[in-house]
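Input.
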Amino acid sequence: MERLSLRTARRVALAAQGFADPRPTGAVDRRHLKRVVGRTGLLQVDSVNVFERAHHLPLFSRLGPYDRELLPLAAYRHRDLFEYWGHEASLLPVSTHPLLRWRMEQAARLELGWGRVTRVARERPDVVTAVLQRITDGGPATAGELHTELDGGARPAGPWWDWSLAKVALEQLFWSGRVTTSTRRGFTRVYDLPERVLPAAVLALPTPSPADAQRELVRLAARSHGVATEADLRDYYRLKPDETRRAVADLVESGDLLPVTVEGWRSPAYLSAGSRVPRRVRASALLSPFDPLVWYRDRTARLFGFDYRIEIYVPAPKRVHGYYVLPFLHAEALRARVDLKSDRQAGVLRVLASWLEPGSDPGDTAAALAAELERAAAWQGLSAVLVEPRGDLAPALAAAVT
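Output.
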């Protein structure tokens, strides 16, 4: 069995995620976006917009500044991508639609989904039927429009997180694949029937058995990780332990996964066949908390020695590093973390706190981070980067930005 050093495992993982690919020197286009999503397999969607939305940041991390309209065009005009539950709420290549139909079928049988969403389907199937009929007959609609039409616009109440019944019914229909996202207005989903949204050629693809689909999802997860434990592979598309174990065994037998050991890892690991092992990875990048490279915190700790916790839901006095903290990748390691806020009214990118990771050079890290922050500010149309004096990297970073 091959043994990988931790440094080699990092390089394999970074290359698998696209960080060994050079950033475009000219305008970023649809082809570049497809290349990134081909590496990551999906983009997690999240509503937090204190710095930048989660689905845009992985593209910026790998491509540099790009026209943010490129992503909605790819998803909602060209239909290269579709929305569904992949890792969490995700944008995925349409080619993966057949691989997730088993999950849709489970949701339709009320075997999968959030408890309150499946509960409304059991207790108020009439609402689910009415919502689906309204979209079938009346065309695309938002949850708010359906709430007004079907619930009379009354203030949401009851055990549904203050969601309207129409919204909860839509979530059940979305889980079960009976509606999908046609487009978005701002960040608001517009729902429609899949046959009116997704390419006919995709809908016509055969539906694999659950075991075959899960095996392919694990293979895709392995390709995106490069090297991974079984737990890493399971987390990528939110599979169950028995599903992942079966898939891993099959992929080892077929030669798609090669058992390896990784320096410092307690669990067995698997190398995706054909993974690239670059001699060096030169990328410097700000990473979203929801970037596939770091979204599984246990893997982040094993791979980079980086203890990462998003503190959005932690009361302010108890936060250690800040509200919306991004790791900074540089010289093949996570060298710093920064709490960022795009102050769009003032036209500046605020660095509310900046922290250096142990063993990292403050001058080199600050210089590289300053360049990336200035690039991010320009991408967002902000005129300056303002570094506030919180964190042990703040003095060096402020000097580098100035």
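The chain has a mean pLDDT of 94.
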